[in-house]
Amino acid sequence: MTDAHTPSPSATDRAAVERELRAMIAEAARLDAAVVAGLPADTDLFGPEIGLTSLAGVTLLGAVDTRFGVDVAALDLSLDSLQSIATLADFVTAHRSAR
């Protein structure tokens, strides 16, 4: 039985993925990691706060593939998973657990 205050293993895994993705996003967008870490999860990756460019997006996708083994561009042709920090974290978590 899981304590109501203890996150489930999948929630813990997703939180860890999101933390790593935030650092990767900061690096790709050339932003301070602390700033990206403090943004709400629904922050748009290509919006004004992060301002990811198409080149930075490609860099980010390569880093995600290398780190997590998830080829976002091949699995999500419409790239809807790149809408926000949360959508990318959800996508990566779902696809890496399916491996």
From TrEMBL:
This is Phosphopantetheine-binding protein. It comes from the Bacteria. Pfam families: PP-binding. Residues 15-96 form the Carrier domain. The lineage of its organism: Bacteria, Bacillati, Actinomycetota, Actinomycetes, Kitasatosporales. It comes from Streptomyces bobili. InterPro entries: ACP-like_sf, PP-bd_ACP.
